[in-house]
Design goal:
Elements lengths: L9 H11 L10 E6 L2 E6 L6 E2 L3 E2 L1 H20 L6 E9 L8 E10 L3 E9 L8 E8 L2
Antiparallel strand pairs: 1-2, 2-6, 3-4, 5-8, 6-7, 7-8
Helix pairs in contact: 1-2
C-alpha cells in the first residue's frame, strides 16, 4: 500500500504537460503511459537529434527526460499546478543508452508540503539494463 494519492490520471497529466509545453512537438515529448499512486511510466519516442557522437542517446536528453518524468509524477499527485519547479537533479549515468524509445519510471520517495523527492530510472533496452538513474527534487507552489 502506498501513502500517495493520484489527483490526475495518465491522460490528465499528459494534458497538463501538453498545455505547459505548448510550443513543443507532442510527438517528441516524454508522455505518461501508466500512472498509479507513487509511480509513473513515461515514454519518449526515439527521433532525430537525440544522439551524441558514437551513436548513443546524449546525456542532456536523458536529463531532460528525467526532469520531465519527475514533473509529471509531481503533477499527478498535486494536480494542475504548473508552477512546481526543479530544485535539485542528481544524475547517474550507468551505461550507454542505445538507439530506441526512451523509457522512464518515476517513483515518489517523499511528498511533503513544500518539496517532492522522486527517483527516475531510464532505459532503452529494458528495465533490467538501466542507462541512468536520477534523484529529482521539486519545490511545490
Amino acid at each position: 500500500m502506498t501513502p500517495f494519492d493520484l489527483k490526475l490520471d495518465a491522460q490528465g497529466v499528459n494534458r497538463v504537460l501538453l498545455e505547459a509545453f505548448s510550443e513543443a512537438d507532442p510527438n517528441a515529448m516524454a508522455l505518461v503511459q501508466e500512472a498509479s499512486p507513487g509511480r509513473m511510466l513515461l515514454k519518449r519516442p526515439y527521433g532525430q537529434g537525440l544522439l551524441r557522437p558514437g551513436g548513443i542517446i546524449s546525456g542532456p536528453v536523458l536529463m531532460t527526460i528525467a526532469d520531465t518524468s519527475a514533473y509529471a509524477l509531481v503533477l499527478g499527485h498535486i494536480g494542475d499546478q504548473k508552477m512546481a519547479v526543479t530544485t535539485s537533479l542528481v544524475m547517474n549515468f550507468l551505461r550507454a543508452a542505445k538507439v530506441g524509445d526512451i523509457w522512464a519510471e518515476a517513483i515518489m520517495l517523499r511528498l511533503g508540503r513544500r518539496l517532492a523527492v522522486t527517483e527516475v530510472r531510464l532505459w532503452t533496452e529494458g528495465p533490467d539494463r538501466l542507462a541512468a538513474q536520477a534523484t529529482v527534487t521539486y519545490a511545490l507552489p
